[in-house]
Amino acid sequence: MKMRTYLALALATIISIGVWHKYTKQENKSDEKTNYLIGIIQVVEHPALDQTRLGILEALKENGYINTKNTTVQYESAQGNPALATQIIQKFIGQKANLIIAIGTTVAQTAKQATQENKIPVIFASVTDPMNAKLVASLDMPGGNVTGVSNYISISKQFSFFKRLLPHLKNIGVVYNPGEANSVSIIDKMNEVSDVFDITLHTSAATKTSDVMAATQNLIGKTEAIFINNDNTALSAFDAVVKVANEHEIPVFVSDIDCIEKGALAALGPDQYELGKQAGQMAHRILSGKSPSNTPVEMPKKVHAKVNFHVSTKLGIAYQQNSTELFEGQ
After folding, report:
1. Phi-psi bin for 216: left (phi > 0), alpha (psi -120 to 50), beta?
2. Which H or E run contains 113?
3. What is the DSSP string of 24-54?
4. Closest Cα to residue 44, out of 273, 254, 208, 257?
5. Is residue 226 a contact partner of residue 175, using CB atoms and an 8 Å limit?
6. pLDDT tens across 116-144, in order?
7. From residue 123, how far is each of 2, 41, 136, 259, 329 by CA, in Å?
8. What is the pLDDT of residues 189-244, one digit of tens each?
9. What is the pTM of this model?
10. Measuring CA to CA, which residue among 61, 59, 56 is closest to residue 42?
């Protein structure tokens, strides 16, 4: 009788321990991500960068970082203002953010500079040339507290794409902000390969969005097409570019596929939403303990080529509706 009692007690104890262990495991699992503060800063608001941000938020959610539940995600736009960007980053630092995500080159540079002492991890997204912007020591081994995802697409592929659409293209005009390191880098790369494609490059500077229309008008008479490539100032005022181009029946090329609906003739560029998801997945790895210093910079995993047939018809350029097949594999 006593033996049965002992066995019953032992069995009850084992069951109790098992239940407690299972319960605490579940509790620990639900508490794996608690009280994180993630600061997101965007250089300026325009469709491409907005899609990048949405992709980041979706990837964070997929990995269990639930805003207002176990994570606080604070988003701020620098509105193209460097002084405001500094204030935002300093606010994130003062709040002891676990991670800062910087969307755009100039805010990523600001974040790197501001975190040199405290070493808060910084992940950038939609940065064209992280090496030239001095964000990382190398793409494979960033070497500091900063890494991220670039939106760079080969200029040779861009020019090849343009030539397939406009075989007789000789002159391309570019509106860019000389204060954006990514834009200066792109201009340099364009100049390096333009001779190969028998293209002459004409540039026009716009240091703020209100300058974009005048900068576009400065290109009229010099160019057969206008190209806006990852310049946040020009993209923020893209409607002004299209307005001037339409008035003079000049096609506009972009590297931002989201601008197709805003009147561009064609785009060859990354899927900004998917690029954001890449950055969000990287954020998860960094928050889980991986160091930015040995987390390689990533390039876009998805690149799309799109043609706006409505615009091509208005410009009198004849393409077959299935001609998008010509641009696969870019």
Report:
1. alpha
2. helix 105-114
3. HHHHHHHTSS-SEEEEEEESS--HHHHHHHH
4. 208
5. yes
6. 999 999 999 999 999 999 999 999 999 99
7. 65, 11, 11, 25, 29
8. 999 999 999 999 999 999 999 999 999 999 999 999 999 998 989 999 999 999 99
9. 0.81
10. 56
